[in-house]
């Protein structure tokens, strides 16, 4: 896709646009960054306690072992609390937990932006940083009595959904059938993950894809759902450049909405993504698999290696997602977030704070809209309605209430 050179965004312009000064994040002054405006919180309260609570869920992973989770709870001197519930990978070791306490205890949650930057500068594991950041935002919202999206100026109360199929689903006809079911249930789009040899593509090696089979699946889906139904392609970094170009040209003809991660997403491939973007009309969505937070993604935006950026709350927290959203807005491109799953609530808050033109959809991994309550929680998981939309939570904080009795009863000591 051709890009306007006037829309180029470099790191210096991004830092200016989002209110960074002398290397310190200042979200309290983000009013200049168009729509996202942070409401000031009182600094009368101070953080007095940080609890890390690892626990066993009754859910089981692929190895049939109980899944382990980590809840973090932050309490202030006045008794206000905010929390987050993440994968056990967020759990810090004792030394890191002490360093976090040294940074946060005695500080005001109103200085969240500065505190996040300090934590970020300590080089915390991104999952640990994400859990802390979500808990701090949850605390801010609960102290203000507002959902997090309202702290940033609410833009919408619902978001469109699309369904992602999963890889190696079956023959092209099965992909077509699944896409038709999604359309019939009101879901607003379908993302096809076709055929892949696992363990090759995202690490920088290729020969993991099957472009001829993929072409058949993409074509069958388009025929099944008609010319106007949004379809997306996701290849998980499996193609060579030549394969990516050949498949991308077919997607141009089929009118796909975006082309996600066609080649490996290491920094060594950025220039090839830039070249591919110039050759295709279909927008490129990348990088998903890059292990870094929002900062490495700025280089992809700066080099026009993507037309749609992609990030998850696990990659540095809600603040990292917010920063990338601001970068995309200033660059004139879109952003997509990872799926609506066990950690969906921070994503839904960002969706509520941004317009559809910036972040278009929430991603589903299942056609089920049964209202499940996960172990350790009180709030049901978000589901889509008959029109294919998910409601944005309207309760204070992130919108997620935890079952503390369950969490402490299943605590890992």
% residues in beta strands: 15-25%
Helix/strand structural class: alpha/beta
CATH fold call of the largest domain: TIM Barrel
Residue share in helices? 25-40%
What do these coordinates show?
- With about 425 residues, the chain is α/β, with parallel strands linked by helices.
- Helix content is about 35%, strand content about 15%.
- The chain folds into 2 domains: about 45-145 and about 405-410, Enolase-like, N-terminal domain (Enolase-like, domain 1, 2-Layer Sandwich); about 150-390, Enolase-like C-terminal domain (TIM Barrel), CATH 3.20.20.
- It has 13 helices and 12 strands.
- Helix 3 packs antiparallel against helix 4 (about 125-145).
- The radius of gyration is 21 Å and the shape is globular.
Write a concise synopsis of the structure shown.
This protein is of the alpha/beta class and 413 residues long. It is built from 13 helices and 12 strands.
Structure characteristics:
2 domains, TIM Barrel, 413 residues, 16% strand, Enolase-like, domain 1, single chain, 3-stranded antiparallel sheet, alpha/beta, 7-stranded mixed sheet, disordered N terminus
Helix-strand layout with pairing:
Blueprint: H1 11-17, E1 47-60, E2 66-76, E3 81-87, H2 94-104, H3 112-121, H4 126-144, H5 148-151, E4 158-164, H6 172-184, E5 190-192, H7 211-225, E6 231-234, H8 241-254, E7 258-260, H9 270-279, E8 284-285, H10 294-302, E9 308-311, H11 318-331, E10 334-337, H12 344-352, E11 361-364, E12 389-391, H13 404-409
Parallel strand pairs: 4-5, 4-11, 5-6, 6-7, 7-8, 9-10
Antiparallel strand pairs: 1-2, 2-3, 4-12
């Amino acid at each position: 896709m051709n890009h306007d050179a006037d829309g180029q965004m470099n790191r210096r312009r991004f830092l200016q646009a989002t209110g960074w000064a002398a290397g310190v994040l200042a979200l309290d002054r983000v009013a200049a960054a168009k729509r996202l405006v942070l409401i000031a919180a009182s600094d009368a309260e101070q953080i007095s306690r940080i609890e890390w609570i690892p626990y066993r869920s009754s859910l089981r992973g692929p190895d049939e072992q109980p899944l382990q989770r980590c809840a973090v709870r932050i309490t202030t001197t006045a008794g206000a609390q905010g929390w987050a519930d993440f994968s056990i990978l967020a759990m810090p070791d004792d030394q890191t937990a002490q360093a976090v306490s040294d940074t946060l205890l005695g500080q005001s949650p109103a200085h969240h932006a500065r505190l996040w930057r300090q934590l970020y500068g300590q080089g915390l594991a991104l999952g640990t940083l994400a859990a802390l950041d979500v808990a701090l935002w949850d605390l801010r919202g609960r102290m203000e009595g507002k959902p997090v999206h309202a702290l940033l100026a609410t833009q919408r109360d619902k978001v469109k959904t699309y369904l992602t199929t999963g890889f190696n689903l079956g023959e092209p006809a099965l992909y077509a059938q699944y896409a038709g079911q999604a359309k019939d249930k009101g879901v607003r789009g379908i993302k096809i993950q076709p055929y892949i040899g696992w363990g090759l593509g995202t690490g920088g090696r290729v020969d993991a894809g099957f472009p001829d089979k993929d072409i058949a699946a993409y074509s069958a889906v388009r025929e099944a759902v008609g010319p106007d139904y949004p379809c997306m392609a996701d290849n998980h970094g499996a193609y060579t450049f030549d394969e990516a170009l050949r498949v991308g040209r077919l997607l141009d003809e089929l009118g796909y909405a975006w082309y996600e991660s066609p080649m490996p997403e290491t920094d060594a491939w950025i220039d090839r993504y830039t070249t591919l973007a110039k050759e295709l009309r279909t927008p490129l969505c990348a990088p998903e698999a890059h292990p870094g937070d929002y900062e490495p993604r700025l280089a992809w935006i700066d080099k026009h290696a993507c037309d749609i950026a992609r990030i998850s709350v696990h990659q540095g927290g809600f603040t990292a997602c917010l920063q990338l959203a601001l970068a995309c807005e200033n660059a004139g491109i879109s952003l997509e977030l990872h799926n609506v799953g066990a950690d969906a609530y921070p994503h839904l808050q960002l969706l509520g704070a941004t317009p559809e033109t910036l972040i278009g959809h929430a991603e589903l991994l299942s056609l089920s809209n049964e209202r499940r309550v996960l172990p350790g929680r009180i709030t049901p998981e978000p589901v889509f309605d008959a029109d294919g939309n998910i409601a944005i939570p309207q309760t204070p904080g992130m919108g997620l209430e935890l079952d503390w009795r369950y969490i402490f009863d299943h605590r890992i000591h």
